[in-house]
Amino acid sequence: MQFKQIPAFNDNYLWVIIQNQEAWVVDPGDANPIIQFFEKDHIALKGILITHHHMDHIGGVSQLLEWAKKSNQQSVTSVGPLHPAITFLDRVIEDQDDVELFPEVIAKVLAVPGHTLSHVAYYLPHSKSMSTPRLYCGDTLFATGCGRLFEGSANDMYQSLQKFAQLPEATLVCCAHEYTLSNIKFALTIEQNNTDLIEWSKQANELRNTNTPTVPTTIGLEKKVNPFMRCDLPSMMNFARQVTPAKLNTSSEVLAVIRKMKDSF
Length: 265
Ligand SMILES: [Zn+2]
Hints:
Helix content is 35%, strand content 24%. The chain is α/β, with parallel strands linked by helices and 265 residues long. It has a single domain (2-263), classed as Metallo-beta-lactamase, Chain A.
């Protein structure tokens, strides 16, 4: 198995999962860099996984399918959640469905509403061919942050991030954007004394100084540094209570407060 992350637009990553010169692409917002890579390395398109309907995640699909057809590649399978803007699917998936990417390589579908209502993530657990589990989470979880709440509620996002928190700590978080430095800046306004966050801030800044991606991170790291994954902590509740006159009782209310702060950060 090979894994590739292809930068696109200003700050997107397009993810590719390859075995024996065949590939699945996650959220091809732009077809051009993927086609370039496939032609250079003689890779055929086997399938497309979609996390949600935003254009920077589906905008390259028709061009990619057209290219595969023109180059006489065998049938390509497009998989994604039910949404009127996602018109090209061969298979509509739901929470807990399995998608067989390659023999013995299964992607488990997780419904993760919040950023959009029908958003899904794809989890590839540890297996014979997968030494490290991987999570393709679109715009739900970012390194040190989470997606904006365009359609879902703060409670939706809280529950979705809790699903991710149950995954093995080593799981690689393959998110769709390089937003890490600005997310870290925000996180530091909430947890100035979080030594893991301070250390991560140094590392991430060094990586970006040499134009190196900061993602994928891991679920283990996110639990230590990502405020949106830490809403259950009493210190987070205390922080949130200090910045709002509203009475807060639940962790999802804490998430609502800090997500709102981040919206105008
Ligand atoms: Zn999005």
